[in-house]
Structure formats: structure tokens, C-alpha cells
Specification:
Helix content is 29%, strand content 24%. The protein contains 13 helices and 27 strands. Strand 18 and strand 19 form a beta hairpin. The protein starts with a helix and ends with a helix.
Length: 584
């Protein structure tokens, strides 16, 4: 009950000093200017990391769709395909980790040096699965792609055709028979002989569970993954570092994934799944879903379930989101490529990392209506800057956060990247309410929480000049459909040389609350907060602990008990405070 005793001290102090002058933990609405102002508090637990990500957590995809791929009467892909994308554009060279794949990957054949006929291109054909004929990857284009990735310094994942050699049932879409690996083996050998570096080979696209267009049974898919692993081990024999084996690259289905993981525990290094939880791109209610906290909360289920399956299995494989565009069928123009989508995207990044996801690949780097870059101009869309800020500010170790106040505020925190301290992400889904957020922390093994007031006094005594850096993201003219992002009030536009503009923070006293405006996003970097979870030894141990179900479970249980303790205390003293004050 240490928490309750401390809350009693705080409330008694409130009664003695006067309620109006003190920022309290509970949110209080008050009219102010053109909107409301509320107060809230975010609690960050820095004792132990609840998860860890790859350093290159941010990933984006490149797809195969040709220019005549159209959805709902709109053709949004232009020349953004792996086969025709202009690789000389400067904006592409900021790619960090790239997954090459997509729906048509299971219809791609790879040119061989012995082939006499030229590579056939995808041809639109409504009678064919996915509406296109088979297409071919010329080795000349494969050479161009690999030179580009080498020059960009990007980490590369390539998705292989998993339907080669199978028969597909017309009625149910079940693909039967073993995978014919000869085409893939030829490509992998060519890649190694050329000295190209591939970080991972992924087998198939959206063939798990009920599949999209076709499906493969979990036991057969597992057998094919084992075959791929054997091929890679043979071809890369003598290599100190071998590529990862990834799969299945499909939608999460608990029973299917459980069987698949159990039967690939010696051959699979990464379990990949896809996320399009907003539904079809044609849906007129996409923004309502994005701004609904309950709907966003529902997105945690596949992360939670997959984390549980991995912990209970014998595998050492980790989880990645291999493709996530939010809304399927190429997204929705002026929604999935506009400012409003950063609410969904950043919330997904925060949520995924909280459940141990190591890498998150956004659909797409360019192409469709959900690209980080404009398909025709290559100008960054708002999510490009959101991804870049995450990559620069959010380190590997994930910290537990709890927000007390309006449910329209979403909070995530990580140890900072390549700098001391922590970085806090705040997302305000409210259209009319500014929230003044106080930060409360915990960094030891005791059960006593530091109140906002106590923390503020401690900071004042220890370092009255302590500051933090803030990055406030808003839409131009407050329009959620805008494709122009403001950073601290400044329009983000590419430089005269076509490069990324500087992403400069504002400096704020650490004694002040964080002001989160309506429909805005804030990254706040606290360089002076030192956490046990962010120490070098903790960083290495958190990576190991991510595979330990016992330590994670006990830590999670303790945090939940403490949160319950705090909420009960707040409820009791919120009810009793007027009575207590009568005696002082």
C-alpha cells in the first residue's frame, strides 16, 4: 500500500496549499481559447525494458504491381514497381531496410543465364489469379537493384515465389504439392556468385491461413521452409554470416501459425505477418477507425497472440511485420498517404515494439496510395517524416508507459537512440482538446511511485536548467487530409538539392508540462533521465530476455499490480479528498 500512503500525502498537501495551483495526476477539462485544455500524467517505468527491437526497426516495401494495377477505378502505382522504378532518385537512398515482395511475387519467375527467350512482363488478364499473368525478373534488373541497395546501404529482404510447382484448387484455392525450389535456387546461386548481399530470403506472400487468392497448408509450408533452409545452408557454406529465413508473410491465424512455427523451429529465423486491420481502401470510415482509441487497441491482438505462441514454442525465431499498409487494395488517397495516417502508423510502431516485434515493414516505400513517398514526384508524404523521426529518436529498448487522463492520448516510450535519456511519443486523437502532460517516472526496485509534484521538486533542486527536446507534428491548416507536414510549425519540404530537410527540435524546460495540441503528435527527448533499462548492460540483457517467458511474465504481472494499486488509490482519494480537506 506504499502507493496509497504516498497519494494520501499528496492529497493532504493539495488541501493545505490550495487545489488550483497544482497540476494533478487526474485529467481535468477547462475551457481555453478555441478549444479545451486538460491535464494528464504519463508514468514511465524505467526499471526494465518490456521489449527490444532491431536497430533498423523501420522498414519499407517495394512491390511488383505494374502501372495498370487499378482499384475502385483508380490506378495509383505508376512506375513504382521493382521492374520499372527510377532507382536514381535521391529520396530512395534514405531507405534503411527494404522488403521486396507483394501479391505478385508468387507469380514471378527468375530469368536464368541459359534462357534464350526474353523475360515476359506482367500482362493484365482478369481470368488469371490476382488479375495478371506470370511475370519475369530479368537478371539485368536484378543487377541494377542490388547495385542500388549496395550504394544506399540498405538491408534487403527478398520474397520468393512459393507457388512454383503447385496445383491450385479452383474452388477453395488450396495449393497442393511440394514447392518446386529450382527457380529460387538458381536466383540464390546467381546472387551469391555476383557477390550481392541479401539479409534474408522470405518464402511466399499471404498464403497462410485462408490465404489471399491461394493458400498452403501449414505442414506443407513448414516442409518447404525446411527445404529453403537446406538450400541456403548449402549455397552459403563457408560464409560466416548467412541470410535469414523468413515466412510465411501472411495474415495471422493462430492455429495455422502455431503448427507452422512448431514444425520449423530449427530452420526459421523470422516469423513474418501482414497487417491491414482498417479494411478495404474504399471504406469511407477509415478516418473514424484511425481516430477511435478502442479500434486502435484492437490492433494489439495479433501482436499479443504471436508473442505468446513464440514464447511457448521451441523456436528461437522472432516476429516481424513484413507488410503493413493499413487499408488493403492500395489504400485510400488523401487518407493513407496524408497526415491522418501518421496516427495509425506511429501507434502501430509503438504497439508492435511493445510486444517484441523486431522489424516493421511499411507498405510501401513508394507505390499505391500508402507510400512513404509520392508515387510520381517522390516528394515525402507525412509518414516519411514520422518514420524518420522514429528511426532517429527511438532506440531499441522499449519502456512501459501508462497514461492517466483522456483516452484520446496514446503514449509510447523507448530508450533514446545514440544519445542519453529516453524518448516519449505522444499522440493526440482529439480534435478540440489540448492536453498538458506531466511526466512521472520510476527507476528502482521499490514499490513507491514518485508523484509529479515530488519529481518536479527533485528536478528543481538537482538541475534547474534541465531541458528536453520536442518535435511537434501537425497538419498544414489543421487539415487531416493534408499531405504537407508541419514540424514545430514549419512546413517540411525537400531541400533545393532534393534532400531531406533538417528535422530540428524546440528546446523546453523539463519543469514544464508537454503541451500536446489537438490532432497532433509529439516526440519528446529527455536527455537527463537515466534509466536502468537504458544502461548498456540492460540493453544486451533485454535482447536475451525477450525470449524468456518467465522473466517477461513476472515483470508484466508486477507492473499490472502496481498500476491497479495506483488506480485504486486514485479512486479512493478522489472520493475522500473533499472530506479530508474539511479537517485542514
Amino acid at each position: 500500500m506504499g502507493c496509497v500512503l504516498n497519494l494520501m500525502r499528496l492529497w493532504l498537501w493539495v488541501c493545505l496549499m490550495g487545489q488550483s495551483s497544482i497540476p494533478v495526476i487526474l485529467s481535468q477539462g477547462s475551457g481555453g481559447g478555441s478549444g479545451n485544455v486538460e491535464e494528464g500524467s504519463v508514468f514511465i517505468d524505467g526499471r526494465v525494458a518490456i521489449g527490444s527491437t532491431d536497430d533498423d526497426f523501420i522498414c519499407a516495401t517495394l512491390d511488383w504491381w505494374p502501372p495498370d494495377k487499378c482499384d475502385y477505378g483508380t490506378c495509383s502505382w505508376a512506375t513504382s514497381s521493382l521492374l520499372n522504378l527510377d532507382l536514381s532518385n535521391k529520396m530512395l537512398f534514405n531507405a534503411i531496410k527494404v522488403r521486396m515482395g507483394g501479391t505478385l511475387q508468387d507469380k514471378v519467375i527468375y530469368q536464368r543465364t541459359s534462357d534464350k527467350q526474353p523475360c515476359a512482363q506482367f500482362v493484365k488478364n482478369s481470368s488469371e489469379m490476382f488479375g495478371f499473368s506470370e511475370g519475369c525478373l530479368p537478371m539485368s534488373r536484378w543487377d541494377e537493384l542490388n547495385r542500388f541497395f549496395r550504394d544506399a546501404g540498405a538491408v534487403v529482404i527478398f520474397g520468393l515465389n512459393a507457388l512454383s510447382g503447385r496445383s491450385i484448387d479452383i474452388d477453395g484455392g488450396l495449393a497442393t504439392g511440394a514447392w518446386n525450389s529450382s527457380d529460387a535456387e538458381s536466383l540464390i546461386r546467381y546472387t551469391v556468385n555476383k557477390g550481392y548481399t541479401i539479409h534474408g530470403w522470405e518464402l511466399g506472400n499471404e498464403l497462410s491461413g485462408n490465404g489471399v487468392g491461394a493458400k498452403v497448408a501449414a505442414d506443407q509450408y513448414a516442409s518447404d521452409i525446411n527445404t529453403l533452409q537446406s538450400i541456403v545452408q548449402e549455397i552459403y557454406a563457408g560464409f560466416e554470416v548467412k541470410p535469414l529465413i523468413l515466412g510465411p508473410g501472411g495474415f495471422f491465424d493462430a492455429s495455422w501459425f502455431t503448427e507452422f512455427i512448431d514444425k520449423t523451429h530449427k530452420s526459421l529465423q523470422v516469423v513474418t505477418h501482414h497487417i491491414y486491420n482498417l479494411g478495404a481502401g474504399v471504406d469511407d470510415n477509415l478516418i473514424d477507425k484511425i481516430l477511435d482509441p478502442s479500434y486502435l487497441d484492437g490492433g494489439s491482438q495479433p501482436f499479443r497472440d504471436l508473442q505468446s505462441i513464440l514464447k511457448l514454442s521451441a523456436t528461437s525465431a522472432t516476429a516481424w511485420v513484413g507488410e503493413a499498409g493499413g487499408a488493403y487494395n492500395s489504400g485510400h488517397n488523401l487518407v493513407t498517404n496524408a497526415f491522418v495516417f501518421s496516427f495509425w502508423y506511429l501507434d502501430q510502431l509503438g504497439m508492435a515494439s511493445s510486444y517484441g516485434t523486431k522489424t516493421y515493414c511499411r507498405q510501401t516505400l513508394i507505390g499505391g496510395n500508402y507510400g512513404l513517398l509520392n508515387t510520381t514526384t517522390f516528394v515525402p508524404n507525412p509518414d516519411y517524416y514520422s518514420a524518420l523521426l522514429w528511426h532517429r529518436l527511438m532506440g531499441r529498448n522499449v519502456l512501459s508507459t501508462s497514461f492517466y487522463g483522456t483516452n484520446k492520448i496514446r503514449t509510447y516510450a523507448h530508450c533514446s537512440k545514440q544519445s542519453p535519456g529516453i524518448t516519449l511519443l505522444l499522440i493526440n486523437l482529439d480534435s478540440n482538446t489540448t492536453v498538458q502532460v506531466q511526466v512521472s517516472t520510476k527507476n528502482d526496485g521499490s514499490s513507491i511511485r514518485t508523484s509529479t509534484l515530488q519529481q518536479k521538486n527533485q528536478i528543481q533542486r538537482s538541475n534547474s536548467t534541465s531541458t528536453r527536446e520536442e518535435y511537434h507534428l501537425t497538419a498544414k491548416d489543421g487539415d487531416l487530409h493534408s499531405q504537407t507536414l508541419l514540424l514545430n510549425g514549419k512546413v517540411m519540404t525537400v531541400t533545393s538539392s532534393g534532400g531531406v530537410p533538417p528535422l530540428e527540435p524546440i528546446t523546453v524546460s523539463s519543469l514544464e508540462p508537454i503541451t500536446v495540441a489537438p490532432f497532433s503528435i509529439v516526440f519528446a527527448h529527455f536527455p537527463d533521465i537515466s534509466y536502468l533499462a537504458c544502461s548498456s548492460s540492460s540493453s544486451s540483457s533485454s535482447s536475451r530476455s525477450s525470449s524468456s517467458s518467465s522473466s517477461s511474465s513476472s515483470g508484466s504481472t508486477q507492473m499490472e499490480m502496481e498500476r491497479f494499486d495506483l488506480l485504486i488509490g486514485l479512486l479512493i482519494f478522489g472520493l475522500l479528498q473533499p472530506i479530508i480537506c474539511m479537517f485542514f
